[in-house]
Amino acid sequence: MESINVVIDDIGSPTSATNEEEDGEPSILVTEPQSQRVAEVQAHCLSILTVQSMDTMLHDILIVKEFPDVFPKELPRKLVDREIEFTIEVMPGTQPILKTLYRMSTAEMKELKVMFLGHVINKNGILVDPQKIESTALLQFKQLFSVDCSNVSDGCYPRNNNWKEGTDCCAWDGVTCDYTTAHVIELDLGCECLYGTIHPNSSLFNLVHLQHLDLSWNNFNHSKILPSFGRFTNLTVLKVQDSHLSGPIQSSKEEVWQGNNFSNSIFHLQKLQELSLASNRKLTNKIPSFINGTLRHLRLLYLYETGFAGELPNSIGQLECLEELDLHDCNFSGTIPRFPKNLYSLDLSHNNFEGPIPPFSIFSQLSYINFSNNQLTGPIPPSSLFHLVNLNRLDLSSNNLSGTVELDMSAKLEYLEYLDLSNSGLSLTTTNSTPSSFRYIEILRLSSCNISKIPEFLKTQKEALDVLDLSNNRLNELNPLCNLDPRYLDLSNNQFAGLIPTCFANLTGLRFLNLQRNNFHGSIPQTFGYASMLEDLDISHNGLQGVLPRSLTNCTNLEILNLGHNLIEDTFPFWLEKLPKLKVIVLQDNKFHGPIEQPGKRLAFTNLHIVDISHNDFIGTLPSKYFESMHSMMIDDKDKSVLNYMGYDFGYYSVTIMNKGLEITRHKTPRSLERQTARSSEGLKTWAYNPSITYR
Questions:
Q1: Is 9 within the bounds of a domain?
Q2: What confidence tens digit (pLDDT) does each residue in 144-189 have?
Q3: How many domains, the chain?
Q4: In a domain, 25, yes or no
Q5: Residues 417/440, Cβ–Cβ less than 8 Å
């Protein structure tokens, strides 16, 4: 239907009407009073239009400005509105197919516009290429840092060498873009050896579409976590662990949070799912209250090895999505609050938490609990930890707990692989009447638990058990342990007596054996020579007699040999120099005798760090030339900052030695000792008269 234009004459007097304009379009000319009457008539075919000014330019039309590539450069000065009637005839007895119209959301419309145009249009109608802007921001951020791998974790190396101007930033190492919007949504610069400071005006904060940001294992030179991090409102993952960050987490001055005088911008990121600030020792703060749905999507929170302190807020229980919480080795205090029930990993070790262990019976998903090295008190709730059927690791060591626990209860935990109750304050009993459900117990530490009988369930763990610590108890029977083959076996400070069982020779995987401070007597078994994997043998503080078995030369992996405080009668064991890895020899307080010096021969213990032969019956002198080949005893001043210690993945070597008449226990034995000057240019006098540890 063709529309009719009505032209209103503002003269107010009757005027002759013409039915055609110059362009042939029909029109009606009426006076202003007549137009008011016409407007009251409900005519379906009459539309009243105001003629637009002829001065309107083509480029001022909004739709033309938005799509300049679609419209031609020149159009008729006046556009005619037209309506088209369109019908479809259907077959008799049928009806048209009806389908509900789909209305696109605003976000979908924006995405469609980007896909259609291949670029972004900002609110001012200006064409913007996000890759160009964000690639510039990335390059500017990178240029602020130098590359220095000397103060970051081992294995780190720079990967972003293909960051070059003029290339597609979405193809750069560590950069991921959204395939529809072309915005940078993921930036992984972890372990890139970056060195420098993050400033408040850094171009990094222009990447506001980031969803994943990893800056871990770099050296940001004690930078602070600034309020600018709050601009990443789309962020779901933030990792900055071990990045040399320091100071309190800063926030903007205008923010207020429930009366606190600080507000942490990173804790306001509503979409955050993973947050790791760990291993930044100088990073300090408190954990704020989680209120009004703050971080309601958070699944993982790592703050371990930081300066975070204070009490945990009770509102942490409102983080219903929280699955992993690791706060070990911080300065937290107070009581342990209620945690969300979906939690499956919880580490609060090495803090100052006090009070009782709360009930955990509702936490059916928990598989990892570490409360060690705190000040927890009271008994374990009866229906608590030992009823967590999915528990894989439980560590309550070094606390002030009380009460008696039946060890058989832990044997019901089918999936338990790690159990450490050492020095927890608990007393353990076992009736050996409950069948073990353990599938694979790998590490069992029960030191100082007042145990008088070896648990029966250990007999079924020959293939699985790797570490067994039963030290500082009241055990007196060794035979049940002969069926095991652990790497680490500590039976020190018990009541074992008689001969050392020869079955230890069958422990082919044994690397650490500690039998000190028992009541063994007789000679050292020759079968020790069959334990070829042995690295640390401590049989000190017993009543062992006889000579050293020469079969020990078969233990070519031996690093520490502690025979102190026995009744062994032998000459100095020069033959031990055949052991290429031997670092520590302690012969203190025995009946070793004879000269140390061999005419025309030097001591060849090239890897020896410590030798203690005090309180024996050696005679003669000890020339200083003996130490000329012992380079491992020496460390230069420049090497002091990098002091390594001897030990395994499950602990350090510990050794007690004599130094100028005083016993000194080294719980962590350094691999090199500081160079010291001999007390006499003529060499040390007889060690029988001048007991000391000798190293230079």
A1: yes
A2: 999 888 877 777 888 777 888 888 888 899 999 988 888 899 999 9
A3: 1
A4: yes
A5: yes
